[in-house]
Amino acid sequence: MAKKTKKVEVEPQIETMEEVVTEFFEEPVVEEPKARERLKPANEWEIKDRIYYLKGGKKPLSRSIRSTGIFYFDEEKGYERELKYCQNQKTSFVDEMKGDQRLEHIVFRSGSLYVPKEKTVLQKLLSLYHPGKDVMYEEYKPSALAADEIDVLNMQVDALVAARNIDIDMAEAIMRVEKGSEVSNLSSKELKRDLLVFARNNPKLFLELADDENVMLRNFGIKAVENGILRLSSDQRNFLWGSNGRKLMVIPFDEHPYTALAHWFKTDEGMEIYSNIEKRLNE
Q1: What is the pLDDT of residues 162-174, one digit of tens each?
Q2: 107: CB partners within 8 A, 6+ apart
Q3: What share of the chain is helix, strand, coil (3-state, %, to 5)?
């Protein structure tokens, strides 16, 4: 008798696999800008028309400057390099030239030289390398001129404000430096007007005089001489009493007489004489 076979059903096993996810953090890629989009370095040569002027306001009909036999010390290379301006070369450095060298003259007409942007070699020679730069000639730079003008205008404003607020005695002392004994004949309004004009036209000198502690003492000494209280000897070596010619002080060598007198008024002896003179001036 045959045995029956019992079938056992086996459930299929499903193999589960864990999915491993790996995250990648990619660094942002910065694309290198195209050549035309790259930022220009701060020291890159600016292509533009340039004008050069002879210094000192000189305007001869024509003036040539050296275009050969000149040298420039190259700090990077550590030696002097010969310069030459040639119309058929792309550089002014002789050690970089190729082929024939056709020398070109550099000529200022009526005190100026206009160099168009196409002549970069000549512009660089004049603006960077030529030993005559800022000695014989200078490049016209509107921004630099504007900065200088602003400084002058600010100084004029400071001088005019100071002149407007200054007292009449100080005004007389300052203007006596400019006009001498003529100041004694000016009215107060004339003196104030001349002071404002002086401050506007010579702001630097005016501010220096306004800050000079000796300017009042110098003016005091000049007034004493003008009124005959003191007398300056003919050789300008001594101050004397005007009444009897007695010597008061000896002026040091190479010192201005009234500057020396101002310093002497600060000494013990000078202070007594100052008080004596002040009383006589107020009589």
Answers
A1: 899 988 888 888 8
A2: 62, 63, 64, 113
A3: 40, 15, 45
Q: Is-contact 230 217, C-beta < 8 A? A: no
Q: pTM of the prediction?
A: 0.44
Residue 4 main-chain phi, psi, to 5 deg: -85, 135
Q: Is residue 92 within 8 Å of residue 106, measured between CB atoms?
A: no
Sorted by sequence, the CB contacts under 8 Å of residue 157 that are 6+ apart come out as none
273: its two tokens: 């004489």
Is 159 within 8 Å of 206 (Cβ atoms)?
Answer: yes
Query: What beta strand segments (E) does 75-123 contain?
Result: 79-83, 106-109, 112-115
Q: Strand pairing of 112-115 and 50-54?
A: antiparallel
CA–CA distance, 262 with 265 (Å, rounded to integer)? 5
234 φ, ψ (degrees, to nearest 5): -60, -30
